[in-house]
């Protein structure tokens, strides 16, 4: 008998993740602050809970995928939160990106109630969430990781147990440092290519398979040259993650030269009202500095 899964948070990532859990045959209950986002899942066979507490009462494993550390705390421990419907022996898996310290604190609070906890943030964008090909980095005790593995396998292809509570979040921050640094390099490279007059699509084809190739280049480079700013991950959410990176790096004394530069470039785009666009719109900050626009707008 499959464990009953409860999924909280049906945003840009959560919708695809929950759909893949349902597709894998798990009994699924969902809750979202805006209930309308659950309509497609309910039509496909999911149950809709009235609150996180109601969802917990119907579930063996509860997964949260929300925006930030305070949001996780609210759905777990706030009024009508998971803790009110939970019972000993349950497992809570937080797949949001939050502070490592927050993950450790939530694990300790749940442990006091006999409830297991894993921090298991993800990478792979909305595409990976929809296709079930996410990279999942997991922090927590090995027996709980083993218990959660079937549901992780419904959502992701690369599942790595990276350490104890909080380690999953730390590795996710490593991921975000690499993502934004790569996107800054892509932005500079494409502005240079545009200024130099070479064919952008042929340029991407030439460099993507070599030493400069990356997921960001292959997935976001083509979007940039089409000027398609639909988000796999928004600037606003990326900035939230970079705040977590900069705070965590400050705590351990690690210099963040490129990451802090990207943070401030994104801030200029937020001030221009572009926070809802995909994180690859970072190139707009470099374009404005250069007075050069990459690609052609589609008619």
UniProtKB/TrEMBL annotation:
<dbReference type="InterPro" id="IPR029154">
    <property type="entry name" value="HIBADH-like_NADP-bd"/>
</dbReference>
<dbReference type="InterPro" id="IPR006115">
    <property type="entry name" value="6PGDH_NADP-bd"/>
</dbReference>
<dbReference type="InterPro" id="IPR008927">
    <property type="entry name" value="6-PGluconate_DH-like_C_sf"/>
</dbReference>
<protein>
    <submittedName>
        <fullName>6-phosphogluconate dehydrogenase NAD-binding</fullName>
    </submittedName>
</protein>
<dbReference type="InterPro" id="IPR013328">
    <property type="entry name" value="6PGD_dom2"/>
</dbReference>
<feature type="domain" description="3-hydroxyisobutyrate dehydrogenase-like NAD-binding">
    <location>
        <begin position="166"/>
        <end position="285"/>
    </location>
</feature>
<dbReference type="InterPro" id="IPR002204">
    <property type="entry name" value="3-OH-isobutyrate_DH-rel_CS"/>
</dbReference>
<dbReference type="Pfam" id="PF03446">
    <property type="entry name" value="NAD_binding_2"/>
</dbReference>
<dbReference type="InterPro" id="IPR015815">
    <property type="entry name" value="HIBADH-related"/>
</dbReference>
<keyword id="KW-0560">Oxidoreductase</keyword>
<dbReference type="GO" id="GO:0051287">
    <property type="term" value="F:NAD binding"/>
</dbReference>
<dbReference type="InterPro" id="IPR036291">
    <property type="entry name" value="NAD(P)-bd_dom_sf"/>
</dbReference>
<dbReference type="GO" id="GO:0004616">
    <property type="term" value="F:phosphogluconate dehydrogenase (decarboxylating) activity"/>
</dbReference>
<dbReference type="GO" id="GO:0016054">
    <property type="term" value="P:organic acid catabolic process"/>
</dbReference>
<keyword id="KW-0520">NAD</keyword>
<dbReference type="InterPro" id="IPR006183">
    <property type="entry name" value="Pgluconate_DH"/>
</dbReference>
<feature type="active site">
    <location>
        <position position="172"/>
    </location>
</feature>
<feature type="domain" description="6-phosphogluconate dehydrogenase NADP-binding">
    <location>
        <begin position="4"/>
        <end position="163"/>
    </location>
</feature>
<comment type="similarity">
    <text>Belongs to the HIBADH-related family.</text>
</comment>
<dbReference type="GO" id="GO:0050661">
    <property type="term" value="F:NADP binding"/>
</dbReference>
<dbReference type="Pfam" id="PF14833">
    <property type="entry name" value="NAD_binding_11"/>
</dbReference>
């Amino acid at each position: 008998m499959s464990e009953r899964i409860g999924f909280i948070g049906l945003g840009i990532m959560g919708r695809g993740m929950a759909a893949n859990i349902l597709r894998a045959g798990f009994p699924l209950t969902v809750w979202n602050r805006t209930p309308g986002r659950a309509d497609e899942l309910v039509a496909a066979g999911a149950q809709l809970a009235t609150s996180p507490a109601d969802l917990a009462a119907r579930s063996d494993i509860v997964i949260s995928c929300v925006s930030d550390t305070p949001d996780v705390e609210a759905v777990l421990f706030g009024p009508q939160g998971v803790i009110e419907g939970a019972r000993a022996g349950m497992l809570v898996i937080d797949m949001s990106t939050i502070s490592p310290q927050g993950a450790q604190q939530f694990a300790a609070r749940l442990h006091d109630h006999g409830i297991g906890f894993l921090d298991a943030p993800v990478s792979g964008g909305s595409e990976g969430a929809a296709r079930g090909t996410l990279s999942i980095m997991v922090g927590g005790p090995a027996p709980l990781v083993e218990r959660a593995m079937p549901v992780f396998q419904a959502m992701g292809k690369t599942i790595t147990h990276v350490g104890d509570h909080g380690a999953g979040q730390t590795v996710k921050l490593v991921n975000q440092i690499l993502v934004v640094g790569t996107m800054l390099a892509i932005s500079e490279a494409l502005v240079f290519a545009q200024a130099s007059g070479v064919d952008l699509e042929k340029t991407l084809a030439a460099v993507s398979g070599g030493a400069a190739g990356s997921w960001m280049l292959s997935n976001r480079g083509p979007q940039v040259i089409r000027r398609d700013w639909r988000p796999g991950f928004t600037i606003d959410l990326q900035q939230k993650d970079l705040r977590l990176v900069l705070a965590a790096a400050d705590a351990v004394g690690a210099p963040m030269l490129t990451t802090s530069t990207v943070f401030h470039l994104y801030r200029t785009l937020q001030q221009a009202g572009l926070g809802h666009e995909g994180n690859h719109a970072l190139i707009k900050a470099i374009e404005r500095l250069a007075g050069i626009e990459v690609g052609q707008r589609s008619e």
